[in-house]
Write a structure and sequence with these properties.
This protein is α+β, with helices and mostly antiparallel strands and about 110 residues long. It contains four helices and five strands; from the N terminus they run ααββββαβα.
């Protein structure tokens, strides 16, 4: 696995499908978390605030992952269920429409919980 120093380097190393989603996620993360900055942590893109990791995201062969899953009520858990791996990770397949509103809510909740 190559060592990435910037999110730009990470994005450039991914497939075109992944690049588009990663760039959209970057924008959502930075806009959804006041005072946010982006960084590489655990060799994947991370949105941070005040030195605290808020959300990580990574490109894989067939999907994009977001870590961790935020806490929420039963209704929110049902919304996340189709994307949940059961390991605190959300997966979004490149072949499916991406629920950007849900991703925005995930990041907003994570920011509030941290």
């Amino acid at each position: 696995m190559p060592g990435f120093e910037t999110v730009d380097e990470y994005v450039a190393a991914q497939s075109p499908d992944a690049q588009a989603l990663l760039n959209r996620l970057r924008t959502i993360g930075l806009e959804s978390v006041p005072g946010a900055v982006e960084a590489i942590s655990y060799q994947i893109p991370t949105i941070k605030r005040d030195g605290i990791n808020i959300v990580h995201f990574a490109a894989w062969k067939k999907h994009l992952s977001i870590y961790p899953m935020p806490e929420g009520d039963d209704d929110f858990a049902r919304l996340l269920a189709p994307h949940s791996t059961g390991k605190g990770t959300l997966q979004f397949m490149y072949s499916d429409p991406v629920p950007y509103d849900l991703i925005t809510e995930v990041i907003t909740r994570l920011a509030a919980q941290r």
